[in-house]
Write a structure and sequence with these properties.
It is a single chain. By secondary structure, the protein is mainly beta. Helices cover 0% and strands 49% of the residues. The chain contains no helices and eleven strands. The chain has strands at residues 2-5, 9-10, 16-22, 32-37, 43-49, 56-58, 66-71, 76-81, 90-96, 101-102, 106-110. The strands form two sheets. Strands 2, 4, 5, 6, 9, 10 and 11 form a seven-stranded mixed β-sheet that branches. A four-stranded antiparallel β-sheet has the order 1-3-8-7, with no helix packed on it. The radius of gyration is 13 Å and the shape is globular. The relative contact order is 0.33.
Length: 112
């Protein structure tokens, strides 16, 4: 199971840190990712991190503003989001695997 939390309403330019707690599988061995779905749109991949956090990758739309990290001891994935923009408004999900296993999301709303 995957449960994301930490979403809220934030003003443009603000910051949030999302967390995703994993259970029921060997978290440390998985490449983990964040994806988002804006209202009325499809899923968009946001960021990924390899097992042991050796490597990370980001969508161009968030590069330089978002940072993905993980704590394998806590089975937790994080997404630090800085300089948030209204276009970052979406439901955010953590996910892994192919086919994709995606948990419950958390809503981020960026608005003044």
């Amino acid at each position: 199971q995957l449960q994301a939390f930490g979403g809220s309403l934030v003003q443009p330019g603000g910051s949030l840190r999302l967390s995703c707690v994993a259970s029921g599988f060997t978290f440390s061995s998985k490449i983990m990712s964040w994806a988002r779905q804006a209202p009325g749109k499809g899923f968009e991949w946001v960021a990924s991190i390899t097992s042991k956090g050796i490597g990370t990758s980001y969508a161009d739309s968030v590069k330089g503003r978002f940072t993905v990290s993980r704590d394998d001891a806590k089975n937790t994935l994080y997404l630090q989001m800085n300089n948030l923009k209204p276009e970052d408004t979406a439901m955010y999900y953590c996910q892994y695997g192919m086919p994709i296993v995606r948990g419950q999301g958390t809503l981020v709303t960026v608005s003044s």
